[in-house]
Amino acid sequence: MTVLANASSSSSGMRDPVALAREIKRWGVELGFQQVGISAFDLDDDADRLDAWLADGFHGEMGYMARNTGLRRHPEGLVPGSVRAICVRMDYRPVAEYPDHVLNVPALGYVARYALGRDYHKVLRKRLEQLARRIADAIGPHGYRVFTDSAPILEKALARQAGLGWIGKHTNLLDRQAGSWFFLGEILTDLPLPVDQPLDAHCGSCRACIDICPTGAIVGPYRLDARRCISYLTIEHHGPIPESLRPFMGNRIYGCDDCQLVCPWNRYAALSGEEAFAPRHALDAPRLVDLFGWDEATFESRLAGSPVRRIGHIRWLRNLAVAMGNAPPDPAIAAALAARLDHPAELVREHVHWALARQQTTRQGAQ
């Protein structure tokens, strides 16, 4: 839970700001963050780019992106009196090997690596609260509020300004030592701390992320059309997945990591030591048929505490049906799909019919 602390800040009489900033960074590392930086709120250029992105309709059904754009430009409106963002990075890469043992096996389902363990929102918010309380223990009450992907904040822009990386052509934040396998979080505070310097971009002429995208969602450098993005389609999109895009989704059932997997800077990404992000319930290489057999109670139970749970059982089955339709002919897959032909949800039935037709067409073509 995010909290607005006692706004009667002691910032006017706080200790040396430079020394305090140095201690905050040390405390952050002690609490499990790999990097901590401090940013001001100079966000007009980034907010202008967001406005242009919204005008292009690239946000699709994510209506929340078009709301509170003023707060994205002026985050101090979220925490009256705030002047700085303490930005943190927490690495999440759970396994070392390239996941081709999943992506190249159509009978398995691919879950984005960030979602294999526990919900990162809870993990980061708890640590951010601990960091904010440690600051209060040192200097007294201060006005603050913690965030992680939980409010209208331009997180990547603030993190870039705080020196945590640069925004790559795939629109993810990148760091030369850490790649992009990390989460971001912030503490908006009224403490006038010294700010860090942004890093230079190091994408150069590389376009690996643009070329690898299965659905062509990265329509140009730094331009992502979410309506084509597999992460959007499997997580944010509520209705039927466009038929023209389904064959390109392969066996990706929750999110997509292709643009990160191909990025040269991720060769340097370290494994996460955070136990909470370790794979749970064999989601790192699950069989599609097994997952498709889960009823709603099993789905809720197995995925309790997981970010995957947010899409609900209906969209879970929708995503799985697409992956099963993309698999080579398999009697077990066909039988599992047939068992869901009379599912109460039209969304599930429609994708099951499509998947069965694909299985039949593929089988006929192979004969």
UniProtKB/TrEMBL annotation:
<keyword id="KW-0408">Iron</keyword>
<dbReference type="GO" id="GO:0005737">
    <property type="term" value="C:cytoplasm"/>
</dbReference>
<keyword id="KW-0846">Cobalamin</keyword>
<feature type="binding site">
    <location>
        <position position="213"/>
    </location>
    <ligand>
        <name>[4Fe-4S] cluster 2</name>
    </ligand>
</feature>
<dbReference type="Pfam" id="PF08331">
    <property type="entry name" value="QueG_DUF1730"/>
</dbReference>
<keyword id="KW-0819">tRNA processing</keyword>
<feature type="binding site">
    <location>
        <position position="229"/>
    </location>
    <ligand>
        <name>[4Fe-4S] cluster 2</name>
    </ligand>
</feature>
<dbReference type="InterPro" id="IPR004453">
    <property type="entry name" value="QueG"/>
</dbReference>
<dbReference type="GO" id="GO:0051539">
    <property type="term" value="F:4 iron, 4 sulfur cluster binding"/>
</dbReference>
<comment type="similarity">
    <text>Belongs to the QueG family.</text>
</comment>
<feature type="binding site">
    <location>
        <position position="149"/>
    </location>
    <ligand>
        <name>cob(II)alamin</name>
    </ligand>
</feature>
<keyword id="KW-0170">Cobalt</keyword>
<feature type="binding site">
    <location>
        <position position="259"/>
    </location>
    <ligand>
        <name>[4Fe-4S] cluster 2</name>
    </ligand>
</feature>
<feature type="binding site">
    <location>
        <position position="263"/>
    </location>
    <ligand>
        <name>[4Fe-4S] cluster 1</name>
    </ligand>
</feature>
<keyword id="KW-0671">Queuosine biosynthesis</keyword>
<comment type="subunit">
    <text>Monomer.</text>
</comment>
<feature type="binding site">
    <location>
        <position position="203"/>
    </location>
    <ligand>
        <name>[4Fe-4S] cluster 1</name>
    </ligand>
</feature>
<feature type="binding site">
    <location>
        <position position="184"/>
    </location>
    <ligand>
        <name>cob(II)alamin</name>
    </ligand>
</feature>
<feature type="binding site">
    <location>
        <position position="209"/>
    </location>
    <ligand>
        <name>[4Fe-4S] cluster 1</name>
    </ligand>
</feature>
<dbReference type="GO" id="GO:0008616">
    <property type="term" value="P:tRNA queuosine(34) biosynthetic process"/>
</dbReference>
<feature type="binding site">
    <location>
        <position position="256"/>
    </location>
    <ligand>
        <name>[4Fe-4S] cluster 2</name>
    </ligand>
</feature>
<protein>
    <recommendedName>
        <fullName>Epoxyqueuosine reductase</fullName>
        <ecNumber>1.17.99.6</ecNumber>
    </recommendedName>
</protein>
<feature type="binding site">
    <location>
        <position position="231"/>
    </location>
    <ligand>
        <name>cob(II)alamin</name>
    </ligand>
</feature>
<dbReference type="InterPro" id="IPR013542">
    <property type="entry name" value="QueG_DUF1730"/>
</dbReference>
<feature type="binding site">
    <location>
        <position position="206"/>
    </location>
    <ligand>
        <name>[4Fe-4S] cluster 1</name>
    </ligand>
</feature>
<dbReference type="Pfam" id="PF13484">
    <property type="entry name" value="Fer4_16"/>
</dbReference>
<feature type="binding site">
    <location>
        <begin position="256"/>
        <end position="257"/>
    </location>
    <ligand>
        <name>cob(II)alamin</name>
    </ligand>
</feature>
<dbReference type="GO" id="GO:0052693">
    <property type="term" value="F:epoxyqueuosine reductase activity"/>
</dbReference>
<keyword id="KW-0560">Oxidoreductase</keyword>
<dbReference type="InterPro" id="IPR017896">
    <property type="entry name" value="4Fe4S_Fe-S-bd"/>
</dbReference>
<dbReference type="GO" id="GO:0031419">
    <property type="term" value="F:cobalamin binding"/>
</dbReference>
<keyword id="KW-0479">Metal-binding</keyword>
<dbReference type="InterPro" id="IPR017900">
    <property type="entry name" value="4Fe4S_Fe_S_CS"/>
</dbReference>
<dbReference type="GO" id="GO:0046872">
    <property type="term" value="F:metal ion binding"/>
</dbReference>
<feature type="binding site">
    <location>
        <position position="173"/>
    </location>
    <ligand>
        <name>cob(II)alamin</name>
    </ligand>
</feature>
<keyword id="KW-0411">Iron-sulfur</keyword>
<comment type="function">
    <text>Catalyzes the conversion of epoxyqueuosine (oQ) to queuosine (Q), which is a hypermodified base found in the wobble positions of tRNA(Asp), tRNA(Asn), tRNA(His) and tRNA(Tyr).</text>
</comment>
<keyword id="KW-0963">Cytoplasm</keyword>
<feature type="domain" description="4Fe-4S ferredoxin-type">
    <location>
        <begin position="191"/>
        <end position="223"/>
    </location>
</feature>
<keyword id="KW-0004">4Fe-4S</keyword>
<comment type="pathway">
    <text>tRNA modification; tRNA-queuosine biosynthesis.</text>
</comment>
<feature type="active site" description="Proton donor">
    <location>
        <position position="149"/>
    </location>
</feature>
